[in-house]
Each structure stands twice: as structure tokens, then as C-alpha cells.
Known about the structure:
Elements: E1 17-20, E2 23-32, E3 35-46, E4 50-54, H1 61-70, E5 72-77, H2 87-93, E6 98-100, H3 106-110, E7 127-131, E8 140-146, E9 149-153, H4 166-175, H5 187-190, H6 196-207, E10 212-216, H7 227-238
Parallel strand pairs: 4-5, 5-6, 9-10
Antiparallel strand pairs: 1-2, 2-3, 3-4, 7-8, 8-9
Helix pairs in contact: 6-7
Amino acid sequence: xxxxxxxxxxxxxxPLVEIDEGILTVAGDxxxxxxxxxxxxxxxRLWGGRTAIWSAIALQESDMQRIEVLxxxxxxxxxxxxxxxxxxxxxxxxxxxxxxxxxxARGPVSDVVEVDATEDILGDPDxxxxxxxxxxxxxxxxxxxxxxxxTLITNDIIGHVRKPHGLxxxxxxxxxxxxxxRPSVPRTVRRFIKDPKALARQMRExxxxxxxxxxxxxxxxxxxxxxxxxxxxLAGELGG
Length: 240
């Protein structure tokens, strides 16, 4: 993992797009030993003029202002210990933001930024924080309900890097199984899954969400083609 940012550092990123009502997402690049690798931040509007920030990425001022127009950044979600790169600088920019991470990630995340909660503090009946089964409470997800349907936001347990940029990213995506041809559970993540059958059950439960419209992953493109079927397939590959 690259060194934690101490000052506001904007790395290469694409446009900030509204993928559904009150849901903004942006893809950026993260420096890795073999080259840049894609990462994604998602911003979710909450009740009360607030927003939740999933897997924070520092952006240019015009995009930060757009996020603030959507709602005051109130909850900073660090979905697992590997997604701490920009957590410190977001907390510096928004001192009142509450930091939320799953219980199994509290120690490593606390090394970078003070953790306020390890359970749902979002205060919105349409948005739920989920501690993912089978990951020793180290991985999290979000369920976001909107009039058009449900968006499931996952982190590292599903990769969908269909179009890696550059030779290094291409090699890593193929070598580590980050979903070049179709969404997959990356090989680098499988070793952190403590109970594959429990994770498989969780995925099958997600597949039953009424109106599941898409899955947003932290590495790669959103999954919009049969997201429920994708979850069932991945569950089967995990042995559940």
C-alpha cells in the first residue's frame, strides 16, 4: 500500500458522475509497484442534508464543491484497512466528519485516523452499513435504496476491472483475478476470506434484494448486467 497522504494530494482521476439519485461516483488511479491501479470513491446523500463518503479520494476543488452541494460530508467510511490512503486528509478537511469502519478494521484504521464507530451511524432508513460475513469483520458494504432500485456498494470482495489503464494495471488485473472478463473475487482477497461459505451466504442474501439495480465496486466498473445473477455465480464459486 502506498504511504498515507498527509496533505491534500490529488492523483489522476476521471469525472465525478451521478450514477443514481443522490449517488456520485468517481474512478481514480492509485500508485502500485507494477503501475497505477484503479480505485473508486462513492458519495451517498443522506437524510438531513448530509453525505456519506465511501473509500475517500482527494479530488480537485470543483469536484469537492459539487460533493458539498450534494450534502455536508458527515460520515467517512473506511471500508477495510486497505482503503486508508486519503482518510487522514479528508478528516483534516472536514474535522467534524465521523469515521466509520468495520470492527475488524478498527485497529489499522485507527493508526491513521480516529475511528468513531464500527456499526451503522448513518441515520438514514434508506442506507444501511453492512459488516460482511466471512471476513472476520474486516470488510464492509452498503445497501442504498432509491426510487429507481437498490444499489449495493462493495469493496474488495468483488473486482470488475474490465479496462485497466496501462501495462502494469493490465498485468495486475489479470494476474490477481480482478475481473477482466467478468466480475470475480480477486485472488489477493481470497486469502483474507476466513469463511468462504459465510460470504457465499451473504452474497446470496444480497441477490434477493428487491429491485437490485447495480453493484458498485471499489476497483473497477459498476456491475449493471444481472447483478443478482453475478452474486449467485460468485457465491457458487466460493463453495456456498
